[in-house]
Automatic annotation (TrEMBL):
Pfam families assigned to the protein according to its UniProt record, in alphabetical order: CDP-OH_P_transf
Catalyses which reaction(s): a CDP-1,2-diacyl-sn-glycerol + sn-glycerol 3-phosphate = a 1,2-diacyl-sn-glycero-3-phospho-(1'-sn-glycero-3'-phosphate) + CMP + H(+)
Name of the protein described by the UniProt record: CDP-diacylglycerol--glycerol-3-phosphate 3-phosphatidyltransferase
Subcellular location: Membrane
EC number: 2.7.8.5
Signal peptide: none
Keyword Lipid biosynthesis attached: yes
UniProt entry keywords in alphabetical sequence: Lipid biosynthesis, Lipid metabolism, Membrane, Phospholipid biosynthesis, Phospholipid metabolism, Transferase, Transmembrane, Transmembrane helix
Sequence intervals crossing the membrane: 12-34, 40-62, 83-105, 164-182
Family matches, as InterPro entries: CDP-alcohol_PTase-I, CDP-OH_P_trans, CDP-OH_PTrfase_TM_dom, CDP_ALCOHOL_P_TRANSF_CS, Phosphatidylglycerol_P_synth
Keyword Flavoprotein included in the entry's annotation: no
Function: This protein catalyzes the committed step to the synthesis of the acidic phospholipids.
Chief location category: membrane
Amino acid sequence: MNIPNRITLSRILLIPIFILLLSLPLDWGSWSIGTTTLPIVHFVAALIFIIASGTDWLDGYYARKHNLITNLGKFLDPMADKLLVTAAYVLLIELGLAPAWLVIVILSREFAVTGLRLVAAGEGIVLAASSMGKWKTTFQLLSISFILLHNFPFSYLGWPIGLITLYIALILTVISGVDYFIKNWHVMKESN
């Protein structure tokens, strides 16, 4: 297993730790920050999430730079991304920090696009991620991070940056999903 795939695997291995931190009744105290209170366990979970998210950039960069792109990496990388984001959003619902309807829309798009990619792969077609899809992912990761951090460092200003980035992620998710299907509808036609 090459280094980029090991980095991707480390992201997958961080997911259960992240889940346990937010699922177990841990009370490590909290910090008062601005107009809000930040539970320390949310801070630690956010750090793990941010580190895991950073490995997504790192494994891709390293694989491209050293020409180490493999089929295993093509499989593991998007799966790790979906597992991490899905786990985070579901836990945010459980914690009462994100509206369920919004998360359902975001995750539905993710599963629909994954399904389209699977159909394309069956036809021998590789569907690349669009720049809008990359912005969507960026705002998803930002929203999860800011929500877990209870809007820190913007909590001093009283800005609900977590919800703002979550709604931006929602808008980009829907637009990029529609765009993705319009641009790649030929894959569905050709698979008949």
